[in-house]
């Protein structure tokens, strides 16, 4: 093992041996290379003639660039064309850390890591898998989950997906989740995704307390628990009584046996899907600056070995937005539009006639909601008929249809459900 990895591992073992045991074999072996080319380049920073960096420089020492590209950018060339660090830009890391605390007041003054920048949330989830999932490890997910988890954990890292039942009655089946946490095995990887994709459900305030209590119970029983919080749709909560903070807010300081891993970013929070910027942040009770620095270095090493670094231009544009005096007002405007679409769905589904062919699963947030079709009505057949006859696109998931109300104007919501009703009726009567 490389001596730089050994040094990081020593720090983790000294501060929290349980956390070291949570790492995958990849996670234990990875490090950020500070003693090779990167180290030498860092030492040469500020020299009059710098022939270390693998980038081209104009004669005036600005980044070399094509006018056909730069003419379309109203931003300083130094913020667009050079590489960003594998850790991410220091300024956006510090800013996002502050925003995490602002959005999650339950964190209080708990010390957490600085976020490491990823190529949006999918890459962040992948980096969490790199760091913590060995071949054969089970990743606990709800029975309705984002299908990309299969590619990330099974295909990329040879781990296993272990679903537990998501809903019981009209809320979460937390007992099913807790049972899996307390099952055989000392190491547990739990993935929490709220608002949930595909159902658009977030826990109530009381359900969040029960989730945290279940994780704490497992930790007190000696389980070493990695909780990955996939916060892709963070902040999009449309009902009172629903928890607006991430599980990370409580898990980051819960127990020495619980490592909270927050994967988030501006993709949906700031409506920049193509910017491909995300963050991965760590929190654990008793975590020190040295411990978090070791985790950050390992994560940045994984990022460097995987994609080198995320987009400098995207990070710079986001920082400009965060500094804008109208930023919060603009976000509220878009949130209100999404909430109006959510309310339009709730209003339409008050019509009892729809119960003849389908019912809505619990939903209260995010981009999506799901309807469960009556037995004997094939969801994929309905989906195809909707495209061919009604010019409506939805996603079929076994006997469910997932509807992205985020992409449907409020005025079109009645047409959406009338089309689904008619298609279900036609399929049922064939």
UniProtKB/TrEMBL annotation:
The keyword Transcription regulation does not apply. Gene3D superfamilies: Aspartate Aminotransferase, domain 1, Type I PLP-dependent aspartate aminotransferase-like (Major domain). It comes from Natronoflexus pectinivorans. Residues 75-417 form the Aminotransferase class I/classII large domain. This is Aspartate/methionine/tyrosine aminotransferase. InterPro entries: Aminotransferase_I/II_large, AspAT/PAT-like, PyrdxlP-dep_Trfase, PyrdxlP-dep_Trfase_major, PyrdxlP-dep_Trfase_small. It comes from the Bacteria. GO terms for biological process: amino acid metabolic process. GO terms for molecular function: pyridoxal phosphate binding; transaminase activity. Pfam families: Aminotran_1_2. Belongs to the class-I pyridoxal-phosphate-dependent aminotransferase family. Its cofactor is pyridoxal 5'-phosphate. Transmembrane segments: none annotated. Keywords: Aminotransferase, Pyridoxal phosphate, Transferase. SUPFAM superfamilies: PLP-dependent transferases (SSF53383).
């Amino acid at each position: 093992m490389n001596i730089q990895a050994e040094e990081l591992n020593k720090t983790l073992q000294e501060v929290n041996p349980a956390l070291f045991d949570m790492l995958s074999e990849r996670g234990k072996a990875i490090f950020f290379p500070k003693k090779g080319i990167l180290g030498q380049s860092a030492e040469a920073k500020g020299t009059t003639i710098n022939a270390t960096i693998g980038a081209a420089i104009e004669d005036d020492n600005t980044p070399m660039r094509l006018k056909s590209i730069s003419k379309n950018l109203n931003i300083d060339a130094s913020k667009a064309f050079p590489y960003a660090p594998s850790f991410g830009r220091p300024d956006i890391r510090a800013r996002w850390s502050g925003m995490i605390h602002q959005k999650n007041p339950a964190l209080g003054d708990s010390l957490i890591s600085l976020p490491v920048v990823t190529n949006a949330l999918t890459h962040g989830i992948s980096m969490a898998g790199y760091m913590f999932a060995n071949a054969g490890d089970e990743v606990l997910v709800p029975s309705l989950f984002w299908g990309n988890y299969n590619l990330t954990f099974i295909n990329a890292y040879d781990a296993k997906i272990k679903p537990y039942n998501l809903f019981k009655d009209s809320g979460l089946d937390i007992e099913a989740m807790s049972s899996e946490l307390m099952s055989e095995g000392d190491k547990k990887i739990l993935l929490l995704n709220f608002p949930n994709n595909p159902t658009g459900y977030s826990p109530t305030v009381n359900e969040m307390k029960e989730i945290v209590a279940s994780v704490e119970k497992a930790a007190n029983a000696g389980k070493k628990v990695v909780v990955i919080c996939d916060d892709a749709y963070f902040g999009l909560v449309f009902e009172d009584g629903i928890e607006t903070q991430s599980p990370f807010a409580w898990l980051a300081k819960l127990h020495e046996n619980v490592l909270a891993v927050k994967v988030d970013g501006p993709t949906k929070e700031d409506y920049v899907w193509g910017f491909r910027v995300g963050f991965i942040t760590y929190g654990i009770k008793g975590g020190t600056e040295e411990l978090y620095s070791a985790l950050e270095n390992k994560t940045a090493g994984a990022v460097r070995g995987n994609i080198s670094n995320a987009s400098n231009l995207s990070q710079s544009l986001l920082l400009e937005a965060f500094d804008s005096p109208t930023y919060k007002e603009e976000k509220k405007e878009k949130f209100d539009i999404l909430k109006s679409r959510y309310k339009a769905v709730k209003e339409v589904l008050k019509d009892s006639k729809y119960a003849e062919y389908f019912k809505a699963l619990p939903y209260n947030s995010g981009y999506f909601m799901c309807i469960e079709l009556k037995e004997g009505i094939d969801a994929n057949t309905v989906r195809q008929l909707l495209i061919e006859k009604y010019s409506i696109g939805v996603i079929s998931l076994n006997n469910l249809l997932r509807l992205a109300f985020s992409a449907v104007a409020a005025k079109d919501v009645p047409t959406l459900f009338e089309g689904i009703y008619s298609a279900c009726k036609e399929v049922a009567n064939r």
